[in-house]
Amino acid sequence: MGIDRVGTFVSTQILLSQMQRAQAALDDSNRQVASGKLSDKYSGYGGKTAAMEGARSASAHAQADYAAAQQASSRLDLQDSQLSQLSDLAGDVRQALTKAAADQDSNALMDQMETLFEQVVGVLNANDGNGYTYGGDNSQTPPVTVKTLSDLVALPSISDAFANGTVKTSVRTGNDTTVQVGLLASDLGTQLFTLFQQLAQFDGGVNGPFPSGTTTPAQQSFLESTIPTAANAVADLNSQAAANGIRYQSVQSSMTQLQSSATVYKDFVSKLEDVDVAEALTKLNQNQIALQASYQVTSQLNQLSLLDYLP
């Protein structure tokens, strides 16, 4: 029987166990430094798991609502520009009618109306690439079905000029609240279209057409009666623009709150799962030293022999 390994078996087993623990600790430190996370398993967080996942879910919801609100904000901003354009066009109609009535001269009046009508149709049929802006829940169909004054005059009812849906687009802005962001072409254009139709019908009726010169008493009276209608159309569009602006500010405020909430939740999760890099590096160095020491002790133990201690 050899005597150079007597008494070392138990010590070797203990050292091997310590070496394995040191290796596992080093592996864990390496993973933490590489990933920046305390653990890659839920078990590594113990009782913190539920709170961490709850905060992560809340952060994801806040970020999703923020993205939706951001898209809505862009749409409201675009609508503000288009509503301003519609108001200007309605103002041009009022100005043309006022001038014709004041000068008692309707020269080129209907040519102006035709041009202004086509521009109004162009705005109401605006498409942002995802659908028609003022189509409501029927956003894949042009909301205005006519292109010229002749088309408008031929309709039995002004409502037939519109093919938009009835549901206005809304967006969730957090806390189970929604903000209406969509507008309908029929709401924006009915007054103006009614006025355009009345002008075209009068021009084609028994008291028309409007001459390239002095208007008749009947024409003069009719023109004067249309001016308040045009003024009401301008006022209505300005009210729509003001309401759109209020919704824009509401969405902007919601975006600020959602962004703050997402940041708070994200920071909370970070505090639970992220490692202190400096501390992790220190532990990594310590675990490397501990493992190296285990190797050295094991190696020295394997080299021990009773012969070294016999006289």
Walk me through this protein's architecture.
- With 311 residues, the chain is mainly alpha-helical.
- Helices cover 66% and strands 2% of the residues.
- The protein folds into two domains: 9-37 and 276-308; 50-270, f41 fragment of flagellin, N-terminal domain (Up-down Bundle), CATH 1.20.1330.10.
- Strands 1-2 form a two-stranded antiparallel ribbon.
- A hairpin with a 5-residue loop joins strand 1 (170-172) and strand 2.
- Helix 2 (49-103) runs antiparallel to helix 6.
- It is elongated, with a radius of gyration of 39 Å.
SSE string, helices as H and strands as E: HHHHEEHHH
Question: For this structure, what is the CATH class of the largest domain?
Answer: Mainly Alpha
Count of extended strands: 2
Residue windows where pLDDT falls under 50 for at least 5 positions: 1-6
Continuous helix count: 7
CATH homology superfamily of the largest domain: f41 fragment of flagellin, N-terminal domain
Beta-strand content estimate: under 5%
Q: Percentage of helical residues?
A: 55-70%
Q: Give the number of domains.
A: 2
Mean pLDDT: 81
Level-2 CATH architecture of the largest domain: Up-down Bundle
Largest sheet: 2 strands, antiparallel
- Classify the secondary structure makeup into a structural class: mainly alpha
Rg result: 39 Å
Shape descriptor: elongated
Q: Any idea of the CATH topology of the largest domain?
A: f41 fragment of flagellin, N-terminal domain
**Largest beta sheet: strand ordering:** 1-2
Q: What's the N-to-C terminus distance?
A: 19 Å
